[in-house]
Amino acid sequence: xxxAQPQTLPSRQIQFLFTVALASLLILGSARIMLDNxxxxxxxxxxxxxxxxxxxxxxxxxxxxxxxxxxxxGCNVFEGKxxxxxxxxxxxxxxxxxxxKQVTCRRNGRPDSFYQNWRWQxxxxxxxRLNALKLLEVLRDKRLMFVGDxxxxxxxxxxxxxxxSVIPEGKKSLQRIPPRxxxxxxxxxxxxxxxxxxxxxxxxxxxxxxxTVRKRLVRLDSIAKHGKQWEGVDILVFESYIWWMYKPQxxxxxxxxxxxxxxxxTTAYRLAMETWANWIETSIDPNTQKVYFMSMSPTHLWDWxxxxxxxxxxxxxxxxxxxxxxYWGTGSNLHIMETVRDVLSQLQIxxxxxxxxxxxxxxxxxxxxxxxxxxxxxxxxxxxxNPKTFADCIHWCLPGVPxxxxxxxxxxxLKDYRSKxxxxxxxxx
Length: 429
Ligand SMILES: *[C@@H]1O[C@H](CO)[C@@H](O)[C@H](O)[C@H]1NC(C)=O
Ligand SMILES: *[C@@H]1O[C@H](CO)[C@@H](O)[C@H](O)[C@H]1NC(C)=O
Ligand SMILES: *[C@@H]1O[C@H](CO)[C@@H](O)[C@H](O)[C@H]1NC(C)=O
Ligand SMILES: *[C@@H]1O[C@H](CO)[C@@H](O)[C@H](O)[C@H]1NC(C)=O
Ligand SMILES: *[C@@H]1O[C@H](CO)[C@@H](O)[C@H](O)[C@H]1NC(C)=O
Ligand SMILES: *[C@@H]1O[C@H](CO)[C@@H](O)[C@H](O)[C@H]1NC(C)=O
Ligand SMILES: *[C@@H]1O[C@H](CO)[C@@H](O)[C@H](O)[C@H]1NC(C)=O
Ligand SMILES: *[C@@H]1O[C@H](CO)[C@@H](O)[C@H](O)[C@H]1NC(C)=O
Fold this sequence. Notes:
Elements: H1 19-39, H2 44-53, E1 80-84, E2 118-122, H3 132-138, E3 143-148, H4 150-164, E4 172-177, E5 180-185, E6 190-196, E7 202-203, E8 217-219, H5 224-230, E9 235-238, E10 249-253, E11 261-264, H6 265-283, E12 290-294, H7 334-345, E13 351-354, H8 357-361, E14 367-369, E15 373-374, E16 377-378, H9 381-384, H10 387-390, E17 392-396, H11 401-424
Parallel strand pairs: 3-6, 3-9, 8-10, 9-12, 12-13
Antiparallel strand pairs: 1-2, 4-5, 5-6, 7-8, 10-11, 14-17, 15-16
The chain binds 2-acetamido-2-deoxy-beta-D-glucopyranose (NAG) (8 copies).
């Protein structure tokens, strides 16, 4: 009806059109970490020592996991719809002390709170509610680590907020030891951790405090330095996507660290995934460790994708999820999706793929938009009035969409725990 606005993009497979927006947001991410770090300059090692001094030799009953606490066999939890539920959601409030300012959209001035009240309802079953005490029991003497970029950091913060309220003051702490953040539940001798590795493999963006965005250079065959710090972690959750999507090509080395070449992003991503897969095969003991891989978190940069006829808009001012079940926007790259599927299917070790892309793709309303930060500062009034330039349609508000990713992860962790336990000590007849 209006001008020749495209209703769908000619090629949805590769969308690199958002380079400017992306670059500014990623810089913002780095400033954030730096600030966090300045604020928290205590000596972290003292607290670690304190932890190891405690005596935990207590006999523990096994955690009981009933059928309605795990995902029913055969149910695809990734197919479903968002339903209004302002009774059970949000699970925690913005007062959770472990949220960074970047994600507390309401407190930053977002006028609506609808985005906090949607529950993901799979078509074929119920998604179990997260029971924080049960999760902590399952994590007793264990480490759960999220590895990835700032999207993954949001998932980490969400998980910490989902469990922290059941732990009394003085028995929980958050340490920042870049590139890690470590939440400790002292009485459980359990940690929930985050590891900054935006490409998973090594790159010149690995400094969690000071990293380059524009001059990115990835080392497609190098993972050992990171891998060393992931060794022995009981549950690893990986994610990497948005950092690859800055341009159609990316500077990379493979073999000689001096031989820098431009690779197509899809080629580079595959090589990186293969390097990661080799590390998984040689370093993970599937009897004691478990690995998850998160599918890509979609962006919502053009509102004409869900609002035909519109132009110039983005996720700003969106308050409701998309209801069209077949919706699939351009903020997620199908080539990369296929690459991940291929690499995971060839692994000898069972890695669980959590395909949250589509359920998140419905959530055009869930992003921080103009209610986040830029270079470590909340947007100014003037910037807020210019959402076309300043809206962040990549990161998510909390409480919000990442809470659902964690509920899905939780249901899988419980299921793994139960099947491992049943193997070790089969129930008496
Ligand atoms: C688990 O269930 C068994 C038998 O029903 C019970 O004896 C045990 O106390 C339960 N464990 C916990 C931690 O609740
Ligand atoms: C919950 O949503 C219903 C339906 O929109 C509304 O009538 C009610 O006031 C809401 N309750 C709260 C506590 O926000
Ligand atoms: C705490 O958990 C770690 C594994 O994360 C384990 O090595 C250590 O022995 C545990 N400490 C105690 C006191 O049980
Ligand atoms: C960040 O890294 C760059 C390049 O390595 C360096 O020139 C700069 O001084 C560093 N900045 C800070 C604040 O450390
Ligand atoms: C790769 O690096 C060269 C030299 O720094 C630069 O000119 C080129 O734009 C870079 N390519 C990409 C895709 O960033
Ligand atoms: C890289 O991508 C371009 C454009 O998408 C394509 O024409 C070219 O064949 C690709 N090169 C390789 C080596 O895959
Ligand atoms: C936001 O959307 C509402 C209706 O959906 C509209 O009335 C309002 O003008 C919009 N606000 C801005 C700043 O675009
Ligand atoms: C993930 O889910 C989407 C839609 O729900 C589907 O199109 C895609 O093939 C799935 N990806 C994988 C790797 O299974």
